[in-house]
Amino acid sequence: MELWFTEKQTPVFGITAKIKQTYVTEKTEFQDLAMVETEEFGNMLLLDGMVMTTVKDEFVYHEMAAHPALNTHPNPKKVLVVGGGDGGVIREVIKHAGVEKAVLVEIDGKVIEYSKKYLPQIAGKLDEPNVEVIVNDGYMHIIEHKNEYDVIIVDSTEPVGPAAPLFERGFYQGIYESLKEDGIFVAQTDNPWFKADLIQKVNKDVKEIFPIVHVYGCNIPTYPSGLWTFTMGSKKHDPLEVDETQIPEMDTKYYSPRLHKAAFVLPKFVEDLTK
Fold first, then answer.
1. N or C terminus of the chain with fewer C-beta within 10 Å?
2. Residue among 48, 122, 27 at smallest CA distance from 81
3. Model confidence at 163: pLDDT above 70
4. Known catalytic residues?
């Protein structure tokens, strides 16, 4: 008998993966969590029936969440990651030698626990000396820490359940206040095929707060539609003005100095959502 998992990405569309084995199925305090091994993508973390990350394609999301902002800020020393309990964004953040402190605030400690056990390739840097892991509400952490961070990266699930407040205008205002005077923030903002309204709303909200706002994209095969967006809000530094020749080559598989500006070139139907 074959076992398959289907993520219903919309009420009428989904993606399916053949499962080799199931490691964990648990209802945590905050969400339904599953860790499975798939034939095509290796170990896969699922939250509330949605694919969060897989061993095969995780590098795309984690690199693109971290490096565009960190290579736009001239001297990022203290970085906050909200969510991202699998540790992938943290792994990319601390590749930057100038980062003195990387703080992870994840609301669900079980995500961290099981990621360390079943996704060591992704979560393996969470115990580094310049990393602080806090199991708490990221929204409240932002509110309680003013003028503290150079870069804030919001690595959330889709806007349902515990992640819903992370897509509200008040949260972006809190991020602005939590950043230093030249700070930058990035949030994942889903896909333009099924969530065009979300991209428009976030873009509008962020533009009301930050003077410099850009949307950029990448391809992640296990995420809805494969085309994924991030929204960057910056107080002073424009990612399109970065000198690509000054971006150091890094140990990456997707992001590169040449891709830095190219990622901000959007298909016209996506670009239209940001106007």
1. N
2. 122
3. no
4. 155
